Amino acid sequence: MLIGILQTGEAPDVLSGEMGDYPDMFRHLLDEKGLEFRTYRVMDMEFPASVTECDGWLITGSRHGVYEDHAFIPPLETFIREARAARVPMVGICFGHQIIAQALGGRVERSEKGWAVGPTAYDFGDDRIVLNAWHRDQVIEPPADAEVIASNDFCAHAALLYPGFALTVQAHPEFRDDFIDGLMRTRGKGVVPDDRLEAAQQRLGQSNDAGRLADRIAQFFNQAR
Q1: pLDDT tens across 1-15, in order?
Q2: Is 172 a catalytic residue?
Q3: Is there a catalytic annotation at residue 135?
C-alpha cells in the first residue's frame, strides 16, 4: 500500500542531520507494517496530481498554524475535501490533525491553556496511551461528523475518527524522546514557559506507547485496502 506523506513542515536543521526530517520519522515509526511511502513537500507547493495518486495520505506536523496565511493551506484543504469525496484514507498528525478538522468545518485556535510538551497521557476509551506532544494550537470544535476517540484534561479533542475516511491525532507518535529534547533546546527556550520545559524534561525516558499508536495507524490504512 502506497502512502503519500504530505509534508507541511521541517525539523530544525541542527536536528534533522542526525535524526532525520519528518518523513524519515514516519517511515521509521511505520516500518515493517506493509506500507510504502512517497513524500510531497506541500509546504513548497509540491502537491500530488490527484487524490488517487497514492492509496492513502498522511499529513505531518508543522510549526505553522492552520489559521495562518500560507500559500499551501487553501489547496491542502481542497485536497483533503477531495480525498474525502473519493474515500481515500487519510491520517493527520498534529498540524495534520488540525488542518483536516478545519477543512471539514471544525475550528482550530491557539489554546488558552498554552503548550503541551513531552510525554503526555491520553485516554483512548478504556485505554491509556502515552505519547510525545509538542503543540499550543488545538481543535476547539471538531467537525460535526467527527468522533472524539481520545482526550485528556488539557486537550479535549486529542484524537478524532472520521468514519470511512480519516484518523487524526494531536500528539506526535513519530517524535522520540531525543527529538523532543532537541526541540526544547532549539525551539522551546523563550517560547515555551520554563516550568513546562522543566516538567517535560523530567518525564523524558518514561514508558512511551508510540508503537501501539503506530499499530493503530497501520491497521487503519490496511483496513482500507
Answers
A1: 999 999 999 998 888
A2: yes
A3: no
